[in-house]
Amino acid sequence: MPRALLLGIALLLCIAASSHAQWTLYKISGRDYVPLENVANFYGLGHVQHVGNATVMELGGRSLKGSVGSVEFFINRLKFNLSYPITEYGGVPVISRMDLTKVIEPVLRPQKIKNAELVDTIVLDAGHGGHDNGATSLYGNEKSFTLDVVNRARMLLMQAGYRVVLTRSNDTFIPLEDRCRIANQYANALFISVHFNSGGAGTGLETYTLAPRGVPSMMADGPRISDFEPCAGNINDSENIALATATHASLVVRSRMYDRGIKRARFVVIRDITIPGVLIEGGFLSNDYDARLIATPAYRQQMAMSILQAVQNYRRAVGPQTPSETVAHNYVPESPRVETNTPMLRGGNPTVNEAQPTVITNAAGAN
Questions:
Q1: 223 falls in which pLDDT band (50, 70, 90)?
Q2: Which residues have C-beta within 8 Å of that of residue 304, sequence separation ≥ 6?
Q3: Which DSSP string corresponds to 252-307?
Q4: Which residues lie across from 80 on neighbouring strands?
């Protein structure tokens, strides 16, 4: 099966599962965890297999893979960075309930995100500008490359019938708050911020989406009180990760550059917007190989095409599924319901009618 198809399956399939799935909830250091075996069973992936240090759940082209002690997690071979490392409870590999509801569920079943398919406007944000050059290389600077990618993507999106809004259309410095203000003027819209990276010997592609409330930002040195403050962008947590999946998969497949994964942060432009959004880092200008590639018009056109494909794949994934696109045809199971007293999640739990998987348990260790 082609790699592109494998990467896209997470966004295109409705996963069959038993409506009588039993979940076990463990409390570890004040945080809720569920066994990976429960996850595998619910999403129809069979039993957890141990391959070296990794735990693998797969059926056909669908797979989940992670390692105890690591935040790196692969869904259909696409790399995600979890909010918390996979750990063990009594020798059983477990994953945080936060990552189950905020990553695995919306990625594997994006069609259960309500009204997410109502998209007709794309807000493109070219990073930096004016006096702010961003990252630099021998071949050019970030502000020029991001604007070129955005202008190329604008033409492709308009040809596909979308209304496109640019936060900047020339070499002008636009404050971050103004970029958010522009984005927030539009409903039924998506926000995509384009950047290029810099630092050390880094190479490859990253896609950032907003960290859920209570989750440490990967760009911070450990947990902060501010992690628990509400952010405007968190109303779209499910849409954000679905859009990030579509975007990152498209970038990785087209470019074949190193996959650094989908990550979480609280950058202003994804923190303070009220529409689903992502921030992409299209390579490292501090790395000579990446920098030479970024400097070519062909690569920037490729990025623009990836953005168009990401938008289209997102809309298809979150939209209604036809019988031929589902595993269980007309049967779509109800998600298990969450009942917990975890303080971090109180007040933000999904209701019975929402699309996030939840856990009811009397398991020892869960009190």
A1: low
A2: 149, 150, 152, 153, 155, 156
A3: HHHH---EEEEEEE--HHHHS-SS-EEEEEEEETTSHHHHHHHTSHHHHHHHHHHH
A4: 73, 262
pLDDT at position 275 is 97
Q: Which residue has the tokens 């990967």?
A: 218
Structure tokens at 186: 């539009």
Quick one: which of 75, 118, 69 has its CA closest to 93? Answer: 69
Helix (H, G, I), strand (E, B) or coil at 10: helix
Give the closest residue to 186 by CA, choosing from 117, 271, 123, 269: 123
224 pLDDT above the threshold of 60: yes
- Strand 31-35 with 26-28, pairing: antiparallel
Summarize pLDDT for 129-179 with one digit per residue, the tens: 999 999 999 999 999 999 999 999 999 999 999 999 999 999 999 999 999
Give the residue among 116, 238, 241, 242 at the shortest CA–CA distance from 188: 116
Please give the structure tokens belonging to residue 282. 């299209």
Q: State the Cα–Cα distance between residues 320 and 49, nearest whole angstrom.
A: 33
pTM, to two decimals:
0.83
Count each helix (H run) and each strand (E run) in the chain, helices first: 10, 17
In terms of Cα–Cα distance, which of 100, 69, 359 is closest to 237?
A: 100
State residue 17's pLDDT score.
37
Q: Is 92 left (phi over 0), alpha (psi -120 to 50) or beta?
A: beta
Q: Which of 175, 142, 176, 134 shows the shortest CA–CA distance to 271?
A: 176
Could you tell me how many residues make up the chain?
Answer: 367
- What is the torsional sign of CA 126, 131, 135, 137? positive
> Looking at 109-123, 315-329, 352-366, which range is the least confident one?
352-366
Percent of the chain with pLDDT over 70: 80
Residue ranges of E strands in the chain = 26-28, 31-35, 49-51, 54-59, 62-67, 72-75, 78-81, 87-89, 92-96, 121-126, 136-137, 140-141, 163-166, 189-197, 205-210, 259-265, 277-284
Quote the pLDDT of residue 221: 55
